[in-house]
UniProtKB/TrEMBL annotation:
This is C-type cytochrome. GO terms for molecular function: electron transfer activity; heme binding; metal ion binding; nitrite reductase (NO-forming) activity. Residues 20-98 form the Cytochrome c domain. It holds the Pfam family Cytochrom_D1. Its EC number is 1.7.2.1. Residues 1-22 form the signal peptide.
Length: 499
């Protein structure tokens, strides 16, 4: 017994000694991290290190990055320099908010602006022979790169480094020449796909959701969660036009969930995360004549919209309400016009539409249950729910294929995509690119003949299937490919994919 007490005492003393010797994490940050991640933790050569920026990294992953570094990046391993208690203390400290709320003012945005190629200085024709309309860009999240793929030869044309953690669909100019990307830590980049060169970059926020590009090619709108702003940029060179504070009619500030271009309406739509409003920002009148002032108009709702889908004419929003269920909002009438009988966690943002029995239907996956919900777009009733292998993130199709492809990436069957017949609404096939490894997100070639699937692993690949026979045609190795985007399908706003 005495020996046990003595042993326990020594253990307590050892722990105490260890805790006592753990260095001050703020000082460790200043010594080892600030040079790359900024003294204010807002990022520099490395990404921002704030609780919001680290939200998506599990504690164990953060510990591993600090200890072992990040392969193929400048992030060094600190395992040999810092003792485990110091590393642990530093990781915990990074999860705490700074005493002063981080600011990112209009001046800071302007100061970050870089123009690599001034407008009009690069040739206005592609520097390669591939069909520029059938290019894909693939976001490789592993080492933060983008690959440009030729959709006819099904082979890479070019690969280049991007900002840290791109998210949301990159957006194309209407002619497909430029692609605009947003990184989670606020960088917006404009890249010339014909000349394979960056044109301009600017940091619009500390935490950014995504960007939208106006159909007339004049504007880029970025939505932030930190600070709570929308930032309007001139598309030509990404210079700042306006910073818009996002505040509801009662003065409450809100994070932005996402911004979209409603091309047929000549307006941007901003979805707000914290207040029961949707904003429409017209940039041209009904005849397409540019408007001088881009003023947001709020549509006041009964409930905050969590995730939503636009019909093809962008007349209606189908949204999941925070309080449960769903609602249809008519953007012309500026009010709710119907309820949707939605259960579970529908991922409406990933919805697609097609014609079935002469009626337009919309379908979306569910983040909580293995099912695809199919909704009639005329009277908004639920046509059916198609059971799948498990909860999934994306649903994709193309006008020229009879099938819709659904993943189950949030389930044990994350390695398999199921193929659903768009008329019978039954699962008619499946593909498993690599057993046990995550496969999701499909995009079709311009002609709908091939389906490109992401094998979302560090030693992953784009796996290409014949969209009719479901036979694998080819795989192209990539570093954790996430989304891929076909210029033609996006710029023509194909009903089978996101816009
Ligand atoms: Fe996304 C698009 C929101 C997590 C990969 N994601 C979008 C869009 C929104 C959104 C609003 C539409 C933007 C657009 O059109 O530009 N995503 C969210 C979230 O709220 C969520 C759940 C949590 C978060 O941290 O933001 C989330 N998203 C993820 C992921 O974990 C994914 C799988 C991997 C990653 O890289 O972060 C992921 N999101 C994607 C992709 C798209 C996307 C690939 C573009 C799909 C497309 O085909 O257009």
């Amino acid at each position: 017994m005495t020996a046990l007490i003595r042993w326990l005492g020594m253990l307590v003393l050892a722990c105490f000694a260890q805790a006592a010797t753990a260095a001050d994490p703020a000082a460790l940050y200043g010594q080892h991290c600030a040079a790359c991640h900024g003294a204010d933790r807002l990022g520099g050569m490395g990404p921002a290190l704030l609780p919001e920026s680290l939200e998506r990294l599990r504690d164990s992953e953060l510990d591993t990055v600090l200890r072992d570094g990040r392969a193929a990046t400048q992030m060094p391993a600190f395992g040999a320099t810092l003792a485990p208690p110091d590393l642990h203390g530093l990781a915990r400290w990074l999860r705490s908010a700074p005493a002063d709320a981080p600011q990112w003012s209009a001046d800071a945005i302007r100061a970050s602006h870089v123009v690599t190629h001034a407008p009009g200085t690069l040739p206005a024709r592609p520097a390669f022979s591939a069909d520029p309309q059938n290019l894909f860009v693939v976001v490789e999240a592993g080492s933060h790169h983008m690959t440009v793929l030729d959709g006819d030869r099904l082979a890479p044309v070019h690969r280049f480094a991007t900002r840290f953690a791109l998210h949301g669909g990159p957006k194309f100019s209407r002619d497909g020449r430029y692609v605009y990307m947003a990184s989670r830590d606020g960088w917006v980049s404009k890249y010339d796909l014909w000349n394979l060169a960056y044109v301009a970059e600017i940091r619009v926020g500390i935490n950014t959701r995504n960007v939208a590009v106006s159909d007339d090619g004049r504007w880029v709108l970025a939505g932030n969660t930190l600070p709570r702003t929308l930032v309007l940029l001139h598309a030509e060179d990404l210079s700042v036009a306006r910073v818009i504070d996002v505040r509801g009619r009662n003065g409450d500030a809100s994070r932005v969930s996402a911004v979209y271009d409603a091309a047929p309406r000549h307006s941007f739509i901003a979805a707000l995360k914290d207040i029961a409003e949707v904003w429409e920002i017209p940039y041209a009148d009904a005849a397409g004549r540019p408007l001088a002032s881009l003023a947001p108009r709020a549509i006041v709702l009964d409930d905050v919209l969590d995730d939503f889908f636009f019909d093809q004419p962008y007349r209606h929003i189908l949204g999941a309400s925070r309080g449960g269920g769903g609602q249809v909002i008519d953007l012309d009438q500026r009010r709710k016009v119907a309820s949707l009988a939605l259960g579970g966690m529908p991922h409406l943002g990933s919805g697609i539409t097609w014609q079935r029995d002469g009626r337009e239907v919309m379908a979306s996956p569910d983040l909580g249950q293995g099912r695809i919900t199919v909704i009639d777009m005329q009277d908004w009733h639920t046509v059916t729910t198609v059971p799948t292998n498990g909860p999934g993130f994306f649903l994709r199709s193309h006008e020229r294929t009879p099938y819709a492809w659904a993943d189950a990436m949030m389930s044990p069957r994350r390695d398999t995509l199921q193929v659903i017949d768009k008329q019978s609404l039954r699962v008619v096939g499946s593909v498993t690119p690599s057993p046990g490894r995550t496969a999701a997100h499909v995009e079709f070639t311009r002609d709908g003949r091939y389906a490109l699937v992401s094998l979302m692993e560090r030693d992953g690949a784009i796996v290409i299937y014949d969209a009719a026979t479901l036979q694998e045609v080819k795989r192209i190795p990539m570093d954790k490919p996430i989304g891929k985007y076909n210029v033609f399908n996006k710029t023509t706003r194909s009903a089978g994919t996101s816009h």
